[in-house]
Amino acid sequence: MLLADKLNHIRKTIPGHVSLVVISKTQSPSVILEAYRLGQKVFGENKVQELVAKFEQLPKDIEWHLVGHLQSNKTKYIAPFVHMIHSVDSLKILKAINREAEKNKRVISCLLQIHIAEEETKFGMTEQECRSLLESGDYEAMQNVSIAGLMGMATFTDDMEKVRREFRSLKVTFDSLKSDYFKEDPGFRHISMGMSDDYLTGIAEGSTMVRIGSAIFGERMKA
Ligand SMILES: *Cc1c(COP(=O)(O)O)cnc(C)c1O
């Protein structure tokens, strides 16, 4: 299938209130440009260096999201332009983002990454760690980050019922944090959950943002 057909197929299956972040990691700028010309303006990468290189080479009205793990010392490279960071998993990294955003006179949208999968290797915080972060004086003093919701990655498995339970737990955490800390803040509204193999389950369980790569570009050459 052509890229246009795959992209249109995905678009047709996503309801209007859910946004599509096309994950372009490992794809060349020319392939990304092809999707851009089909009207896709929102792309996500998982590595800082690759994100910066693609930002520099591609049209400036692309909205770039970082979906992979971020180290504090690399925050400065993306702070001038990044639209949303999905992978905030500590107060330390949030502080670094706030500091670099301030230097750039920007407010950067962030999602708190929650650990919902069984695997040890997946990054993310527990709900309790999120609560500690949100209750800290450090967070209250931040002027240059805006917490726009939560992100989670389900266990890598064919067991869709397991995936569904994990997504459901993320929605429960979202609702509970929303009512405890963001009742008056309409900006806290996103649940980034669902990838190529599980985005329909994610949407059924309350996702507002899906991150899709291989279902659009085909299988990646390298992980
Ligand atoms: C690669 C990646 C995706 C997209 O995965 P696909 O299975 O290719 O759709 C989504 N989220 C994150 C964090 C990723 O690293």
Give the arrangement of secondary structure elements:
Elements: H1 3-13, E1 19-23, H2 29-37, E2 42-45, H3 48-57, E3 63-66, H4 75-78, E4 84-88, H5 91-103, E5 108-114, H6 127-135, H7 137-140, E6 145-152, H8 160-181, E7 190-192, H9 199-204, E8 209-212, H10 214-217
Parallel strand pairs: 1-2, 1-8, 2-3, 3-4, 4-5, 5-6, 6-7
This protein binds pyridoxal-5'-phosphate.
Overview of the structural elements:
With 223 residues, this protein is α/β, with parallel strands linked by helices. It contains ten helices and eight strands. It has helices at residues 3-13, 29-37, 48-57, 75-78, 91-103, 127-135, 137-140, 160-181, 199-204, 214-217; strands at 19-23, 42-45, 63-66, 84-88, 108-114, 145-152, 190-192, 209-212. Strands 7-6-5-4-3-2-1-8 form an eight-stranded parallel beta sheet. It is globular, with a radius of gyration of 17 Å. It binds pyridoxal-5'-phosphate. Pyridoxal-5'-phosphate binds next to strand 8 and helix 10.
**Strands across the major sheet, in which order?**
7-6-5-4-3-2-1-8
Q: Residue ranges: pLDDT <50 for 5 or more in a row?
A: none
- The string of secondary-structure elements, in order, is HEHEHEHEHEHHEHEHEH
The largest sheet, given as strand count, sense and whether it forms a barrel, is: 8 strands, parallel
Oligomer: single chain
Which shape, going by the Cα principal axes?
globular
Number of strands: 8
Measured as a percent range, the helix fraction is 40-55%
Heterogens = pyridoxal-5'-phosphate
